[in-house]
Amino acid sequence: MRKRLAALAVAVVSAAAPVPALAGPLPPDTTIYIGVGVPDTGSMFSNTGISTTFICSNGSGATANLRIAILHATGPLAGSHSFTLLHGRTWTGATRATAAFFDFVSITPNNTVLEQGTVIIESDQSGVFCSAYITDGAAVTPVGVPLRLLRLNPHPGVLE
């Protein structure tokens, strides 16, 4: 009887334990995030004004191809950047360079000013996770607010 109870207890605990979700490949250029209200009032030659910083990490178990596109409020493309992100790595980019974050790239070239722009983040892996911050470009410590990104094509078993 004890053996049956012990086996039943193991079965119940095993069934209740969370099963880690496996990352899934997505078709190329699948939109995984969209965000609205992207501002940029800074200068590309100095860390002044407001900038929007994007941080993405790859936990998919595979190399991911990403593209971040920034659109003006009226629709035209303000800038974009495509890159490869290895598993376990994090990438940081911004509409303009900032003093607080190590930005790998400035996404909007030529002193583009953005008022209520849109960001579209595309990936070919579901296990890529991103966040965004509207920041004071000159502040050495992050000063600003998070920019909410809406997740499309979610990673299995993850609620954002």
Structure overview:
- This protein is mainly beta and 160 residues long.
- The protein has one helix at residues 2-16, and strands at 25-40, 50-58, 64-71, 77-85, 90-94, 105-106, 114-125, 128-136, 144-147, 150-151.
- A five-stranded antiparallel sheet has the order 4-3-7-1-10, with no helix packed on it. It has a five-stranded mixed sheet with strand order 6-5-2-8-9, with no helix packed on it.
- The longest helix has 15 residues, at 2-16.
- It is globular, with a radius of gyration of 20 Å.
- The termini are far apart.
CATH homologous superfamily identity: TM1070-like
What general form does the structure show?
globular
Q: What profile does the largest beta sheet have?
A: 5 strands, antiparallel
Number of individual domains: 1
Strand arrangement, major sheet: 4-3-7-1-10
What is the string of helix and strand elements? Answer: HEEEEEEEEEE
How much β-strand is present in the residues?
A: over 45%
Uncertain spans, ≥5 residues at pLDDT below 50? 1-21
Question: What proportion of the residues is helical, as a percent range?
Answer: under 10%
CATH architecture type: Sandwich
Number of helices: 1
Radius of gyration from CA coordinates? 20 Å
CATH class: Mainly Beta
Which class of secondary structure composition applies to the elements?
Answer: mainly beta
